[in-house]
Amino acid sequence: MRYTEDPSFWSAGAVATTLFMAVVLAALTIDTLKQIAPGSPRVPAYDVINRSVTYEYVPDRSEYAPKIAGEELLFGHRYTPDEAAGLVAKGKLVIQSRACIDCHTFFGNGAYYAPDLTRAWMDPFWARYPGPERAERIAKFLMHPFRLGARAMPILHIERDEAEATVAYLKWMSAVDSNGFPDRFGAPGVH
Fold this sequence. Notes:
Layout (H helix, E strand, L loop, with lengths): L6 H30 L14 E8 L4 E9 L9 H17 L7 E2 L2 E2 L13 H4 L3 H13 L16 H16 L16
Antiparallel strand pairs: 1-2, 3-4
């Protein structure tokens, strides 16, 4: 009998391949988790909500990227790293509890019925206001939505503390360097 006709040959090959790929997958997972953890080079720590977050073209990368600059407090409060982490987590829970992804897109995931919120903090509609005023206006909009485009946002019964947490989450999310996604956001004439 030739070795290729022996079932144990194929079983051993399958086991060896599975084990090898499991090791590769584990290594890639560990590396990826390091890359996407808050505080990594492309995913800022949660207390970035205390800083100015803008978007600019980076010529050597040929794409737009977030620019983190000086202090710009949300709602006049400087959040400690722990407070910021708690606030951002609460904002994420508000977004999940109101099923925002059913209409909006986050990092390319979700629906395309309403605007992509990956860079909501820097959206030209809100960016015309300085940081503290911008945060206040977005929070008020979340609590009492008005028509901004072709489709009206529903009233989601968001309380003040939930609105502030959601604004913190949107600001933090806008500071994440997502390799130029959404494409050309911030380019003149592109929203």
